Amino acid sequence: MSVITNNGKSPLAFSSLNLHKDLLKNLTSLGYQEMTPIQAQSLPKMLVGKDVIAQAKTGSGKTAAFGLALLEKLQVKRFRIQSMVLCPTRELADQVATEIRKLARAVHNIKVLTLCGGTPFGPQIGSLEHGAHIIVGTPGRIEEHVIKGTLKLDDLNLLVLDEADRMLEMGFEAALDNIIERTPLDRQTLLFSATFPKQIQAISESIMTDPVMVQISASEDQSNISQQFYAIENEIERFEALRLLLLANPVESTVIFCNTKKETQAVCNNLHDDGFSVLALHGDLEQRDRDQTLLRFANKSAAILVATDVAARGLDIDSLDLVVNYHIAHDSEIHIHRIGRTGRAGAQGKAISLFSDKERYKVGLIEDTLDQVIKPELLPSTEVLNNARAQAKMSTIQIDGGKKQKVRPGDILGALTSKNTDAKNSGTELQGKDVGKINVLDNKSYVAVNKKVLKTALRKLSTGKMKGRTYKVRHLTV
C-alpha cells in the first residue's frame, strides 16, 4: 500500500483536475476554487480509479472529494445503482446526500436516494422500484434492504465508507460485511476515517485492492485553530470554569463535548438554569428530537449545543465559533476530530479544553499527536459573571406541511415577506434579511426567523396561504 502525506505544497485549483466541464462550472458557481489538502491528495487518485484510504475529519472537504469522484464516474443514461455511500448516522447520510445533489446540480437527471433507519420502510421500497443512480444510507437499513432483495447492487462500481471508524464503534461491522459481500468484486472502494484502529486496517485489507493511503498531519489540519487548555481542581470547579469561559468568550455558536449522555444532559440543564440559550444532543433522545435539535442549532435558534461524540456525528455547521471539551476525549485522535469542527473552510477557529490531574496524561498524548508543548492558561476573572449569557438571534417555526404537500422554500419565504393588505398590520413587514435557514422535509417544514419578528412571522404563516391552503404553525422553544 502506497502512502501519500501532505507535503506543504500550495493549494491546487479544481480546474487542474480532469473533471467534466459541467462539474467544474458548477464548482465555480459554488465558490469552490482551491482544493483542501485532503481533496488535493485524494481526488487525482480517485479519478483514475484507485482504491483510496483517507484520514479525514468532518469539515475537511472529504464529502466533496468522494462526491466529485463518483459523479465523474457516473453514467447518467444507465439508470442503475452505480455508487453507494455508507454513513454511521442518519444525520450524516442526509448531509452527504445534500452535498452530492449540490455538486450534481449542473448534471441533469441524477437521482440520489437516502436509505436510513428511523423512517418507514415501505416508502423506501417504492423509491427503489422507481430507480436511482446513487444510494446514501446507514448500514443497518441498507443491510435490511439487501437481505430482503429490495436493493440490488449488481451494477455498483463505486463504494464509499464514510467515517468508517464510527461505523465500527457503533457495532456495524457485521452489517458492513453482509453488504460488501453482495457487491461486485471489481468495484472501486473509498474508505474515509478520522482514526485508524486495527479493525480499519483489517477491513481495508479484505475489501480493497492495492489502496493508496492519504494522510494529512494533525498539526497541518489544525493550523487555523487556536487551542487553550485550563487545569481544574475538581468536578465542581469544572462547571464553574465552563461558565466563566463561556461568559468571557461571547460567540454565536458553541459546541460543548461531554464523554457521557448523563453528563451531557446535566451540563445542558445547568447552563439553561443559568440563563444560556442551550440544547442537548445525545443517544437517549428520540430520533425526531435529535433531528430538531440539530436543525435548530444549525439555523442559529440556540447559541450552545452540549453533545456526546456519537450524537454529534452528523453535525455540519459552516461557522462554528467555539468548541469546548468539558472533559478531554478518551483518544487524542478523537480530540483532533472534535476541535476540527471549528475553523472550517479557512476560517479561524477556537477550541478550549478543561482537564484535571487525572487527565494530564491525555494532554500529553495530544502534545505528542500535535508535536507541540501545551501550557495551561489562567481562568478568566469572576468579573465576567455579570456579562450577558449567550443568546440565539433566531427562532424556529415549524410548519405542518412539506414536500408531500408540494411546499417549497420559496413558498415559505414568499408568505413571510408578502405585503400586508390590512391597515391594522401594515407597519409590520418582514424583510428577506429577517429570514434564516429553511428546511423542507416530507411532511414538515422549519424556518428560522429573527426573534424580533417572531410574532409577525407566526401570524403571517398561520393566516397566509401556501399552495392555496393554510397550515398549522408553532414556535419551537429552547
Automatic annotation (TrEMBL):
The UniProt record lists the Helicase C-terminal domain at 224-386
Listed Gene3D superfamilies = 3.30.70.330, P-loop containing nucleotide triphosphate hydrolases
Q: What is any Pfam family matched here?
A: DbpA
Q: What keywords are assigned to this protein?
A: ATP-binding, Helicase, Hydrolase, Nucleotide-binding
Superkingdom, natural source:
Bacteria
Q: Its Enzyme Commission number?
A: 3.6.4.13
Q: Which residues form the DEAD-box RNA helicase Q domain?
A: 12-40
UniProt motif Q motif: location? 12-40
Keyword Hydrolase on entry: yes
Q: Enumerate the InterPro entries for this protein.
A: DbpA/CsdA_RNA-bd_dom (IPR005580), DEAD/DEAH_box_helicase_dom (IPR011545), DEAD/DEAH_RhlB (IPR044742), DEAD_box_RNA_helicase (IPR050079), Helicase_ATP-bd (IPR014001), Helicase_C-like (IPR001650), Nucleotide-bd_a/b_plait_sf (IPR012677), P-loop_NTPase (IPR027417)
GO molecular function list: hydrolase activity; RNA helicase activity
List, for all copies, the residue spans of the domain called Helicase ATP-binding. 43-214
* Presence of keyword ATP-binding: yes
State the similarity comment: Belongs to the DEAD box helicase family.
Q: Any idea what this protein is called?
A: ATP-dependent RNA helicase DbpA
| Species this protein is from | Colwellia maritima
Its taxonomic path starts at:
Bacteria, Pseudomonadati, Pseudomonadota, Gammaproteobacteria, Alteromonadales
Q: Gene that codes for this?
A: dbpA
